[in-house]
Specification:
The complex is a heterodimer of chains A (about 90) and B (about 450). Chain A is of the alpha+beta class and about 90 residues long. Chain A is built from three helices and four strands, in the order E-H-E-E-H-E-H. Chain A has one domain: Alpha-Beta Plaits, CATH 3.30.70. A four-stranded antiparallel beta sheet of chain A has the order 2-3-1-4, sandwiched between helices. The longest helix of chain A has 15 residues. Helix content of chain B is about 45%, strand content about 20%. In chain B, strands 1, 2, 3, 4, 5, 6, 7, 8, 9, 10 and 13 form an eleven-stranded mixed beta sheet that branches. In chain B, helix 8 packs parallel to helix 10. The radius of gyration of chain B is 21 Å and the shape is globular. In chain B, helix 6 links the parallel strand 3 and strand 4. Classes of the chains: A alpha+beta (about 90), B alpha/beta (about 450).
């Protein structure tokens, strides 16, 4: 079964932030299904829907890789299974 | 794919990252009825083996869910059948031996606290109950992870005042036994009225006789989330305020429901209950008193505090109940003084006396909780204070509890550091008016009439 996680990133804007996050996702054999990003008052905010099949990667591996990328490029990156958002905001 | 808006995603992330939304505890309740054996050593061994077998993966599963959903699961704990019902002998040493087995099992499965060194004596003592109560000072004094609770009152049975006096003795004995650590042992003892059988919170957690073989009970908490919603709406009317809190609590509670569903499935346990509690921690922004302040009170204890707490408590329950398949436990806003920095500050300033906290007990969960009192408090003053809390629970058909800490060697004006999640608080004044002729009458205070409610 395909797993969908939601990746959120927040931090000061810089060149190539989205590209580096997307590259890490690709390196983890996961797919970007949807992405939105804005820059407001110099703050970069990104929401990315990422999916993968069992065997391609795991949430733990993806999370570790993205958090390491975030640390390197100055972003707080969070990876969460989509169900937490569905449960909280949809009945 | 279910459509979720960017605003909703960021709201969830903010709740977790900035407002201290967390799953306060995933507690596995384990029935120990089948562990009773002829001799105490075998009983202790069987108890140890069963806890390790059932809860061996509890921490691993909780950590996996924490990674998956990005929400902190702060505590992983175990509650067991009240030990007085399992051991059922009249030798206190047997109970102490079982307490050591519980402590060893808790350590082996990697949890910090295990609850259920308990007895229910609201109507009277069995020989086992009496022996367990006698064993509490040794059991708590000699273990690190074991928590004890004794139910001394109920709406149907009244208040067993003999048990109240014995528990005052027990608390003072534990205070002396753990004097070098500011009597911290007393933080692991709760005296209850109408104790719930499915409470996931320590120190009062137990796995009651009406529960399944093994169940998962989850407590969710987010005082900071509620505080921010309240603070962002300073002009909301009371009805609007209650609505805002209900909506927020609904969202918070859904996280608990999700974790409970998955944890129970992964651990092969029944889904027990979600405890809809707002439980503070000593961290700034994780405080019930700060919610009250955001409602417009200068500090907890200001006139109107009980009314504000009543509104908050009711809205939390209304919002949460709709979000879960099964609610239970202590469900409500907690007021543990040492664990809530703003509340401890108000108590130290003299703006929140113990009598006001007692009044607040009538409208929220749980009672006089984590309150430091002078180390030289008399047994009768302690018993009277406990009896007052029990009376509020008994008459109002609600759970109340007393977790009082007579800090050995400390008096009024002293500040006591209990450490970690137990926090810190001032030594609070208890009336010195004599009460011995009352509390020592013996027997039970009868249960209240359930009609003519005024």
């Amino acid at each position: 079964m395909r797993t969908t996680v939601i990746v959120t990133a927040l931090g000061p804007d810089n060149h190539g932030l989205l590209a580096q996050v997307a590259t890490t996702v690709a390196e983890q054999n996961a797919n970007v299904d949807d992405v939105s990003q804005t820059v407001s008052n110099g703050m970069f905010t990104m929401i990315m829907f990422v999916s993968f099949d069992q065997g391609e990667t795991t949430i733990a591996e993806l999370k570790d890789a993205l958090e390491a990328t975030g640390e390197r490029i100055g972003l707080q990156i969070h990876v969460q299974h989509e169900n937490i958002f569905k449960f909280m905001h949809r009945i | 794919m279910v459509f979720i808006t960017a605003q909703e995603i960021l709201e969830t992330v903010t709740m977790i990252r900035s407002e201290n939304l967390d799953v306060r505890t995933v507690t596995m309740g384990i029935c120990l009825d089948d562990c009773a054996a002829g001799d105490r050593r075998r009983t202790a061994e069987r108890i140890h083996a069963k806890i390790v077998r059932r809860a061996g993966r509890l921490v691993e599963v909780a950590e996996e869910l924490q990674r998956k959903y990005g929400v902190p699961i702060v505590n992983k704990r175990v509650s067991v059948t009240p030990i007085a019902e399992v051991v059922a002998g009249d030798d206190p040493a047997a109970y102490v031996e079982v307490a050591h087995a519980l402590d060893a099992a808790a350590e082996e499965v990697g949890i910090d606290f295990l609850g259920g060194f308990s007895a229910l004596v609201q109507k009277g003592f069995t020989r086992g109950d009496a022996a367990l109560i006698e064993a509490i000072p040794d059991a708590i004094g000699a273990t690190r992870r074991v928590c004890s609770s004794v139910n001394v009152a109920s709406t149907r049975a009244g208040i067993n005042m003999d048990a109240v006096l014995r528990m005052a003795d027990v608390i003072l004995a534990v205070s002396r036994r753990t004097a070098e650590e500011d009597s911290i042992g007393c933080a692991k003892i709760v005296v209850f009225c109408n104790a719930p059988e499915d409470n996931p919170f320590m120190a009062g957690a137990m796995h009651g006789s009406g529960e399944a073989e093994c169940s998962i009970n989850v407590a969710i908490s987010g005082p900071g989330v509620v505080r921010n919603v309240v603070a962002a709406n300073p002009d909301a009317s009371f009805i609007e305020l209650a609505d805002l809190i209900k909506r927020t609590t609904f969202k918070i509670t859904r996280v608990g429901e999700l974790i409970a569903q998955e944890a129970s499935q992964m651990l092969g346990a029944e889904l027990g209950i979600i405890d809809l509690s707002l439980a503070p921690t000593p961290a700034v922004g994780d405080s019930i008193a700060e919610i009250l302040e955001s409602m417009g009170l200068e500090a907890a204890g200001a006139p109107g505090t009980t009314a504000a707490l009543a509104l908050l408590n009711d809205a939390v329950k209304k919002g949460g109940t709709m979000a879960t398949s099964s609610t239970g436990g202590l469900s409500g806003a907690f007021i543990p003084v040492s664990e809530d920095k703003a509340m401890a500050r108000a108590a130290a300033d003299g703006r929140l006396p113990i009598e006001k906290l007692e009044a607040m007990t009538a409208v929220c969960s749980l009672g006089l909780d984590m309150i430091v009192v002078p180390g030289d408090i008399s047994r009768d003053a302690l018993a009277g204070t406990i009896a007052d809390v029990m009376a509020i629970g008994m008459v109002n058909s609600k759970t109340t509890g007393a977790r009082l800490i007579p800090a050995a060697g400390k008096g009024l004006g002293d500040w006591v550091e209990l450490g970690g999640l137990f926090g810190a608080g001032p030594v609070m004044k208890v009336s010195a008016a004599a009460n011995s002729a009352f509390v020592r009458r013996g027997g039970r205070i009868p249960p209240p009439l359930q009609s003519l409610t005024n």
